[in-house]
Amino acid sequence: MDDDEKGIMYMVLSSAFFALMAATVKFLGDIPLAEKIFFRNLVGILFGLFMVSRNGKKIKVNNVKLVLLRSLIGFFSIASYFYAIGQMKMADAVILNKTSPFFVMIFAALFLNEKIKKTQLFSLSFAVLGALFVIKPSLSSEMFPALIALSAGILSGISYTLLRHLRKSESSETIVLAFCTFSTLATLPFLFTGKFVVPDLREVLALFALGLFALLAQFFVTKAYRFSEAGEVSIYAYSNIVFSVIIGIIIFSEIPDSLSIFGGSAIIMAGFINFYASKLRKAGRISTADETKTASNRRATKAS
User: What is the pLDDT of residues 290-302, one digit of tens each?
Assistant: First the structure.
């Protein structure tokens, strides 16, 4: 198995564990939102501290304001996502959350001066169309959770944009531990004001499974990007939608309607368009570089 195949395998595994995380959130329906977020991040803190002590690394925050901002936005993103999963079909919430890469395009263009290509605009229009079919705009109360799920995608897009900037000054361990610690502390006031529900044994196991699934998902996605370039494996992250649909049908008897299926397909198609356009641009750059190198060699040969 070559590195690209390993990268694809790890990305698919990551998507499966993200789907299991969402299913666990759905399963813990009677547990308060703050409690779910607390246990999801507590496991992350424990593992993060273990890895830091094992590798002998020091945690140092260089850009305190941006790290705190990223942690705050990440907290609201996960809170919105968990809320939406509990209020609507799991697959629909996952589909809307998967719009985040397209919002990264927008925010990276606005704040990081990254140019949006024509093909990216085309894929963005597909993603917006898909989101509208899943949301099904109306004046009914059912639309509210869908808008919350979409806001989770938007907030994730902002969070990932901040990560692009923070990678220049912060280690990944610092960012992850800061986020997990911030989210854990932010939920404490809710837990100490009568909002804590004492879980039974089954729910305790599920709460720790929630943190473990999230941790494994992050671990495998990190491994995927270590073996392959982001442009080569990012498209396989959309397998999360497929896993979520299957789990939703088998465990929760949630069958997506035709509009959600069409919307999800449009968003996946948007991902494919962006993926292949990126590959073509990369191939073009390599071809141009090779031609330049060949021309340079020819000139050098003539000169000699």
Answer: 555 555 555 555 5
